[in-house]
Glycoside hydrolase family 43 protein
Amino acid sequence: MALKNDEVQIRDPFIVPVESEGRYYMFGSTDKNIWGKGSGFDYYVSSDLQLWDGPFPAFRPDESFFADNNFWAPEVYAYGGRWYMFATFRRRDNHLLGTAVLAADALTGPFCLVSEGPVTPRDWSSLDGTLFIDDENRPWMVFCHEWQQIGDGEVCAMRLSDDLKEPAGEPVTLFSASQAPWTTPIQSPKFPRPDNYVTDGPFLHRMPNGELIMLWASFIDGAYAQGVARSATGLVTGPWVQEPEALFRSDGGHGMIFRTFEGKLMLTIHTPNKTPLERPIFLELRADEGKLSVAGK
């Protein structure tokens, strides 16, 4: 039986529209307790973004897989004749988070690891890698250097090899979370520093006017929120200019942008930011004179 949006527990929703089928495929963090042992990733399928068939398995690790905890934020892209999944895992050998690359011949999987573990730096706690292809057709991964390791979380970019299996350059820091006017520190008994700022879920999108923007998430007074930054040069390396206000601040974030088959520009995020209550929502976006806003707000 099909599930409504409020019946689908998922974090970090990522939509792949397949126009030839008239269907949307939704991937995300789908373990019931995504803070614990990881079992893999599932996907759901819909024709209207309201009723979903699934879950169906997209990835299941074998015993040799480099991680067994915290399977997070899969993003799936068509590239070079195959489908590639960028996803975050907590590695066994040093217990740090890292983004690895998986691939499959079909959108529905099964996905298998193609990188040698995470492609993010081994001694960094890194998460939420997203793929960006620049104007010279070069692949980049944009990802977060986690606040739990460095205090003021960062968004970084790194060139990848053409086969996406390994780095092709050193990471470059694009900005820190505290640089955005709308973010506030997050208080955590486990991490008691007063200047902890979160970066989560970067996603790049080329606007209709040609501007390059980035969605990313942080917190406002303890509530999860979705922000926007703009590249002043149109390049992934920036510099990046932060919007003064959050795009969405009602305890939701880790968003991505896609177009419906009718041409509407849509934002999907999960809300609330609390397990097991997180659900996907879909918000129509307006792009007026280059400024992004949620329709009707």
Summary: Helices lie at 147-150.
